[in-house]
Amino acid sequence: MCQVKVNRAQPLLEGLSDEQERWTEQAEMSRNLYELIPGHAIVSAGMIAYGGAFTSAYRGALETSWVSKLREMKIPHTSGCNLRQFLGDPMKVRQWTVAGLPKDELSVENGIIIDRSRRWPLMIDPQSQANRFIKNMGKASDQGFETCKLTDGNFLREMELSVQFGKWVLIENVTESLDPSLEPIFLQQKIKDSQGWCVRLNDKLVPWSPHFKLFMTTANPNPRYPPEVFAKLTVLNFSITPEGMEEQMLGLVVSLEAPELEEKKNKLVVNNAKMKKELKSLEDKILQLLSQSQGNILEDEVLINTLAASKRTAAEVNQKVREAETTEKEIDSAREWFCPVAFRASLLFFCVVDLANIEPMYQYSLQWFQALVAMGIQEVPATNDKSKRLQDLSDHITYLIYENVSRSLFERHKILFSFSLGLKIQAKHPVDHQELRFLLTGPTGEAAVGEANPTTWLSDKQWEGIRALSALPAFAGLDSFFLKNSEAFKVVYDAGDAHEEPFPDRWNDLTPIQKMCILRLIRSDKLIDAAVNYVASELGQRFVYPPTFDLARSYKDSTNVTPLIFILSQGSDPAASLMSFAKGMNMGRRFESIALGQGQGAKARKLIEEACNRGGWVLLQNCHLAASWMTELEKLCDGLNQEEVHRDFRLWLSSMPSRDFPVSILQNGVKMTNEPPTGLRANLLRLYASIDDRTLDSSKKPEEFRKLLFAFCFFHAIVQDRRKFGPIGWNIQYEFTTEDLVVCQRQLRIFLDSYDEVPYKVLIFLGAKINYGGRVTDDHDKRLIECILQSYVNEHLIEEGSAYKFSSSGLYYCPDATDQAGFVKYIQSLPMNPNPEAFGLHENANINFAQIEGM
After folding, report:
1. Nearest-angstrom CA–CA distance, 534 and 657
2. Could you give the CA distance from residue 687 to residue 827 in angstroms, rounded to a whole number?
3. How confident is the model at residue 18 (pLDDT cuts 50, 70, 90)?
4. Would you identify the CATH topology of the domain 15-244?
5. Is residue 593 helix, strand or coil?
6. Which of 15, 591, 614, 615 could form a disulfide linkage to 648, CB 3.0–4.6 angstroms apart?
7. CB atoms near residue 468 (< 10 Å)
8. Per 3-state DSSP, what percentage of the chain is helix, strand, and coil (rounded to 5)?
9. Facing residues of 654 across strands?
10. In the chain, which segments carry CATH 3.40.50.300?
11. 641: exposed, middle or buried (Cβ count in 10 Å: 0-12, 13-18, 19+)
12. Residue range 269-312, pLDDT digits in tens
């Protein structure tokens, strides 16, 4: 009998020796952690209660502050105590990441807060990451899962059933105002009755299931919730982090460039998680069997056999886990080759997201961005040179993002976006954050008492700025240099093109951004020109010239469930150009439009429903004037199903910038701006983008028609762009439109075809007095507009052709072109920023305008 026990004891001791090491280690960790529980619990509780709404950086600052307070009050803790260390269960975290939770620290902390918090989570989720994660977790749960919106007709009934039967509920697209009828659920105001726990919902007692869970998400990246919302709910910031974005982009790039590698990686991640879960289960089972055994363990043959079998299985699984981890490392090593492309895509995404800080209408979804990156990768021609392939991918994706985003930006923001791209990528000259802050904001705070202004050509404010700039390391000694040799910088100050003038002494070795800091102080009127040069240097010349407005391209990017949104500026009206485009697409008879306003909601809904069925186009104009109906519009857009809606259906929307415009529509729609572009060159390019060869040859006198049409286009661009000079350009700011030019074009064709001689006086009278002049009210402006038109539309233009110049520089004239391509080629050769002489103004007219633009 003793020998039998010895025989049983030997394998049991050998089998459990590994477990003994693990148990001893865990016991020691538990003892150590037990002593540190107070400090860790305080930090974790604080993060759950207060930290959820903050970004990763703010959370880190909070933790540092709290740990400092713990140290000060001598509460036991470790220096690196945090939420994940104290409450993070590795098995749960692994399960969450398989379900779609990003692996970055912020997202994992959010998962822990959702799991541990007593209040229901309200997630700020502009990229739909939390939405996807909760849906995957909900579908895998045993309780059932419902997705709904506050605008659903049967919303309250769905909530009643979910509370009663213990379902998980996800409420999507929550606005800044929450439904007060849900207050009892938010506060979990349970009442005990004879049947158990229940809650009063809409004056009705509903049984409360302990399995019920509520989740809420909002697509608004910067919601303004009142304090009481933070008291009732756990607000969580699920905005994507750079680490999480780079990981997602790497997965996307590898799935397209090396699909078999990414597929293998995904399978390994899932299998690894399953095996580790099984391993943990087996380890727990061994502990459970040992703890539940009674009497002498060596006499329990069934227990010993079960333990041995569990141990063998655990050893096999452990071996598989180690092999899988080794394989995963090899795959990760192969995937790292594509990291530069993923990193570039991540930088671009955050550059695009930051645009919402300057205009709330600039909202872009993660899905839209991923689709654009995927399209860009597929467009790049194949090559055997791997390094060249990576560079080609990065370059093409960068320009594709720039091109698509620029279509939805106002003119004043396009160069800002290009400049921001250059700063983010920082390919050649990394930028110091202090220097960038100075460039953007200038000197802040009061300057310390110091040397008096040594110059007569700098204002005291400019001198104070130079002294403030001298405090930055790269500019040390700048104020001393001015004190001794201010005349050296006066050469830059007096130069016509100050942004291209060499700086004196060692200051010429500064980086472009550093030079712009000095330029900001002494010649702020050339700051935009310097920014343009910076963009051309860092990214290339093509990032300086944004694409012209192209309705056909935007239409091509849309689907029958993707709204097309015109972001309006003062005086812009896309209705006429859209109607013309609809006729060109054979949709003229199926095109309906309505101007939104009070009482127009029902009509708009009916138009949309009819167009969905018969395949029409609907334009809802001035959405900003129907703020109360925007929730209904969002509901209509959310309800569009690609399979059920006619494939020809398109919903067109126009709106001035408005905070009431639904974020979800902005993120998923195709956005466009239709304002006149800034600059003579850009204006002409846009006009000729809508003129084809058939139009140029449509008159009986094609040569005269082409030249005079160019003259009218040039006139239109001039009168538009003169507005930037303020009172120097026009005494009153007039809103000239493309329709004015279209009328002139039609009249030009009619009169050329009707008369043997060109009726210059008639054309000038109609253009200057009626079509454009009808808007002009100031007497001096009336005389001016007629003089401007006369200088372009005259017999010299027809007789001399390109020899007849529109300005003293000789740069501007009507080219002797016979087709649209010829005119466009000439227009593209024009300077991006014309001198005032092109408008008939003195050089000094540019100074005030450039200073305002630069600031």
Report:
1. 30
2. 11
3. low
4. Rossmann fold (3.40.50)
5. strand
6. 615
7. 20
8. 65, 5, 30
9. 566
10. 15-244, 551-673
11. exposed
12. 777 777 767 767 766 776 676 666 666 666 666 666 666 666 67
The three-state secondary structure class of 566 is strand
More confident call, 48 vs 8: 48
**SS3 at position 592:** strand
Q: Mean pLDDT throughout 814-818?
A: 93
Angle at 197 between CA 191 and CA 201, to 5 degrees: 60
Determine the average pLDDT of the residues in 17-43.
74
pLDDT for residue 416: 92
589 backbone dihedrals φ, ψ, rounded to 5°: -80, -10
pLDDT tens sequence across 757-811: 999 999 999 999 999 999 999 999 999 999 999 999 999 999 999 999 999 889 9
Rounded to two decimals, the pTM is 0.80
In the chain, which residues fall in CATH 1.10.8.720? 680-854
Which of the two residues, 63 and 330, has the higher pLDDT score?
63
Task: Compute CA distances 110 → 82, 106, 124, 244, 349, whole Å.
Answer: 13, 6, 11, 13, 22
Whether pLDDT at 564 is above 90:
yes
Distance CA 728, CA 735 (A): 16
E strand spans, 756-813: none
Q: How far apart are CA 392 and CA 524, in angstroms?
A: 36
Closest CA to 48 of 230, 226, 210: 230
Nearest Cα to 264, choosing from 191, 186, 324? 324
Amino acid identity, position 369: F
Residue whose C-alpha is closest to residue 676's, from 658, 694, 690, 661: 690
Give 262's contacts (C-beta < 8 A, 6+ positions apart). 251, 254, 255, 335
pLDDT value at 91 more than 90? no
CB atoms closer than 10 angstroms to residue 146: 14
- DSSP secondary structure string for all residues of 234-303: EEEE-PPPHHHHHHHHHHHHHHHHSHHHHHHHHHHHHHHHHHHHHHHHHHHHHHHHHHH--S-GGG-HHH
CA 380, CA 385: separation in Å to the nearest integer? 13
First to last CA, the chain: 96
Task: Rounding to the nearest 10 degrees, give the CA dihedral for residues 636, 641, 647, 649.
Answer: 0
Within 8 A by CB and 6+ apart from 469, the residues are 438, 443, 475, 478, 517, 518, 521
3 state SS of 457 = coil
Alpha helices in 624-727 (DSSP H): 630-638, 663-668, 680-689, 693-696, 702-721
Which pLDDT tens digit goes with each residue over 347-390?
A: 999 999 999 999 989 999 998 999 999 999 999 998 888 899 99
Average pLDDT of the chain, as a whole number: 87
Of 759, 765, 755, whose CA–CA distance to 789 is shortest?
765
* Burial (CB count <10 Å: 0-12, 13-18, 19+), residue 592: middle
- The helix/strand/coil state of 594 is strand
Look at residue 658 in the predicted model and tell me its pLDDT: 92
- Residue 465 — φ and ψ, nearest 5°? -65, -40
Is residue 836's pLDDT more than 60? yes
| Residue 411 contacts residue 570 (beta carbons within 8 Å) | no
Report d(CA 507, CA 188) in Å as an integer.
Answer: 66
With 70 as the cut, is the pLDDT of residue 632 above it? yes
Evaluate the CA torsion angle 276, 277, 281, 282 in order and state its sign: negative
Give domain 680-854's CATH number out of 1.10.8.720, 3.90.25.10, 1.10.3720.10, 3.50.30.40: 1.10.8.720
Q: Tell me, which fold does domain 551-673 have in CATH?
A: Rossmann fold (3.40.50)
CA dihedral 682, 685, 687, 692 (to 10 degrees): -170
Q: Looking at the predicted structure, is the pLDDT value of residue 20 above 80?
A: no
Q: d(Cα 535, Cα 429) in Å, to the nearest integer?
A: 12
The DSSP symbol for 736 reads -
